[in-house]
Amino acid sequence: MLFQKTREKAFWIYDKLRDGKVGNHFEDISSILDEWDVDSKRKVEKYLMDLLTHAVETTPYYAKLDSHSDISAFPIVNKNLIRDNYEQFVSKAFKKGELQPAVTSGSTGTPFKVLHNRNKVYRNSADTLYFAKLAGYELGQRLYYLKIWNDENKKSKFTSFTQNIIPKNVLDQSDAFFEKFVRDLNKDKSAKSFLGYSSAFEALCKYLDKTGSKRVSSNVKSIITMSEALDSYTKNSLREYFGCEVVSRYSNIENGILAQQKRGGGQEFYLNSASYFFEVLQVNSDKPVPVGSPGRIVVTDLFNYGMPMIRYDTGDIGTLDLNDSGEFVLSKVEGRKMDMIYDTKKELVSSFVVTNNMWKYTDIKQYQFVQESSNSYYFKLNPKDKFNREEELINEFKTYLGENAKIRVEYVSEIPLLASGKRKKVVNKWTGTD
């Protein structure tokens, strides 16, 4: 506790020496999101207009636009478009050395690099502190960070010590890895938090199930999952094993934290409307979807002036809804468009049909669901021993996809991880042409 408070004080003292760059952003985010009201909306609208003006005046790609007061006049952009016109998106208001690169892992293609100006970096730091605090994390707390660590993203020993981060490389998800992880947790009595891939936490819970573990004595204060959908099995199991509420975060490397669930809340994601402007558009057109319908998540980053990302198609599918308080939330975030699936009537089906209904098949270690045509699907299964529920599995999923669905099962010894450390549970290979 003493070391945690010392780290927290040191952080804010250092920030004040830099004119409170992060602290000022943190206060601004809090003032907007703690109570979303007329003043919040006016402030965000000004951020949006200022960004659009800056983009048209300083960025070659947007200089051709006649108007910068209406965001609907701006084109939808995506990774491929930005890659193909890279220099056109970089603002002339900055020298290259003033911009900091943010590089995605490239798990679904070639790596993608976005440039952030210094104020955007400060804003991202403040977003991280704000949303981590909502989840129960306190600055300076020990943070076990479960992800793929490599030469590109690994932290130095000094940085890990000062930030109190314990990196755990989940490229290894063997029993030996989790055995040591749990043993270390039981020895570590300090207050701590978890952050990491949903699939890594799922693998941890299945290891604890297999070994008949009781609650782990680890003093965990917050658990945040990221990068993949959090299924009900993993969420409930983490709560049982660690006695802590679990929230899922929706974020990406090129932008930052876009939305996050609240502790003790439901499945809905609260939008980071302090830092981003959100749209949800139809899958096959740039028209908005009705509230409550799934569509493409398109964001405008209000603070990246170095490389403005306006109406950026994230490649993800989500559903925008109004909650009981009249606040817009994402009721679902379902992953990438290419991994959405369709039933035999060629109608879009939520990928949660798969992830939320596989938990009951406890004799399966790993699975992957693949659509290969309009009515043909298969499961890749890595069972613990012999799987005797194949017919039950196929019949259940015919009720979701159509009685004329052709579903087969393939047995494998491993579902390989992507380069990012994620393991795809739903894959769509269908081109939509048959």
Any chance you could write out the topology, listing elements then pairs?
Layout: H1 2-17, H2 21-33, H3 38-58, H4 79-84, E1 100-103, E2 113-116, H5 118-134, E3 142-147, H6 157-163, E4 165-169, H7 175-187, E5 192-197, H8 198-210, E6 220-226, H9 232-242, E7 246-252, E8 256-260, E9 269-271, E10 276-281, E11 294-301, E12 312-322, E13 328-336, E14 341-342, E15 348-349, H10 352-355, E16 364-371, E17 376-383, H11 390-401, E18 406-411, E19 426-428
Parallel strand pairs: 3-4, 3-5, 5-6, 6-7, 16-19, 17-18
Antiparallel strand pairs: 1-2, 7-8, 8-9, 9-13, 10-11, 11-12, 12-13, 14-15, 16-17
Helix pairs in contact: 2-5, 8-9
Report on this structure.
The protein has 434 residues and is an alpha/beta fold. 31% of the residues lie in helices and 25% in strands. The chain has 11 helices and 19 strands. It has helices at 2-17, 21-33, 38-58, 79-84, 118-134, 157-163, 175-187, 198-210, 232-242, 352-355, 390-401, and strands spanning 100-103, 113-116, 142-147, 165-169, 192-197, 220-226, 246-252, 256-260, 269-271, 276-281, 294-301, 312-322, 328-336, 341-342, 348-349, 364-371, 376-383, 406-411, 426-428. The strands form 4 sheets. Strands 4-3-5-6-7-8-9-13-12-11-10 form an 11-stranded mixed β-sheet. A 4-stranded mixed β-sheet has the order 18-17-16-19, with helices on one face. A two-stranded antiparallel ribbon has the order 1-2. Helix 9 (232-242) links the parallel strand 6 (220-226) and strand 7 (246-252). Helix 2 packs across helix 5 (118-134) and helix 8 crosses helix 9. The longest helix has 21 residues, at 38-58. The mean pLDDT is 88.
